[in-house]
Amino acid sequence: MTLQTTMLQLADVHTYYGDSHVLQGVTFDVAKGSVTAVLGRNGVGKTTMCRTVVGFTPARAGRVLFGGADITKMPSHRIHGMHLGLVPQGRRVFPSLTVHEHLAIASSTPSSISRVYALFPRLEERRHHRGNELSGGEQQMLAIGRALVASPVLVVMDEPTEGLSIASIAIVADAIRRLRDEGTTVLLAEQNAAFAVRLADRVHVMSQGRIVHSSEAAALWENEEIKTQYLGVPSHVP
Fold first, then answer.
1. Using one digit for the tens of pLDDT, what is the confidence trace for 34-67?
2. How would you label 62-94 residue by residue, b for 16+ Cβ within 10 Å and e otherwise?
3. What does the DSSP assignment read for 166-224?
4. The 84-87 sheet, strands edge to edge
5. Containing structural domain, residue 192
6. What kind and span of H or E run contains 225?
7. Residue 101 located in a structural domain
8. What's the total number of domains in the chain?
């Protein structure tokens, strides 16, 4: 895969929290315009991987390249300014701000807010409601919308289906498909493997801070050993 077709590259990335060695030589590419999923159980390093990419917890060794530029040690605000967005785990919605205030603070242009309302009509209906007045699904829409108003070319999503109803998960899935159709690249860190493989072009399975399997999404779902051992998916789940 060449740099011209690669949006993001992690090359032998090692990330620590103090003395705790979390990411242990993580290497994978994210193709431009694709949905790439990193799957694994809780605690295997997916959130740390997201934090490393966006500059919150920089790698001690290895390299992170975004659009061919080395962002390994770059401050997070500069990475964000390069149009790399984050949808954090847990949504991180401010309880006292309205939907529109969340979007206005983060927006690059007024049209970017209109784009979010077109993607999530429910947010426009709830535009004057505060964060603590929204359902979990609405908060997740807002977290995604808050990332999108900065017009990112790559969006990192950390566990976007966590705690959501089936109906809300379907809305998030539709939004990811539409983003890909519009040319936005998505890096999806997700425990819900069944959700991710329906959306992803390529998947990587993480265990104990390492990538233990990489393949096309369909090939992963046919691999009963990997699904059972690393993802906790029972054998022969369709």
1. 999 999 999 999 999 999 999 999 999 999 999 9
2. bebbbbeeebbebebeebbeebbbbbbbebebe
3. HHHHHHHHHHHHHHHHTT-EEEEEES-HHHHHTT-SEEEEEETTEEEEEEEHHHHHT-H
4. 84-87, 154-158, 185-190, 35-39, 202-207, 210-216
5. 34-56+76-231
6. helix 224-231
7. yes
8. 1
From the CA atom positions of the chain, what is the Rg in Å? 17
Give residue-wise pLDDT tens across range 79-127. Answer: 999 999 999 998 889 999 999 999 999 887 778 899 999 999 999 999 9
- CA proximity to 184, closest of 121, 94, 137, 119: 119
Tokens of 75: 């401050």
Residue (of 86, 28, 83) closest to 54 by Cα position: 86
Residue 16 domain flag:
no
User: With contact defined as beta carbons under 8 Å apart, do 153 and 185 qualify?
Assistant: yes
Contact call for residues 185 and 53 (beta carbons, < 8 A): no
Q: What pLDDT, on the 0 to 100 scale, is given for residue 232?
A: 80
Place of tokens 């090939």: 219
Nearest to 82 by CA among 94, 64, 100, 59: 64
Residue 211 lies inside a defined structural domain of this protein? yes
Does residue 139 fall inside a structural domain?
Answer: yes
User: 3-state class of 85 per DSSP?
Assistant: strand
Q: Is 35 within 8 Å of 176 (Cβ atoms)?
A: yes
Question: Residue 98 is part of a domain; what is its CATH number?
Answer: 3.40.50.300
- The Cα-based distances of 206 to 117, 159, 202, 211, 224 in angstroms read 34, 14, 13, 4, 16
CA angle 145, 38, 3 (to 5 degrees): 85
Question: Is the CB of residue 123 less than 8 Å from the CB of residue 142?
Answer: yes
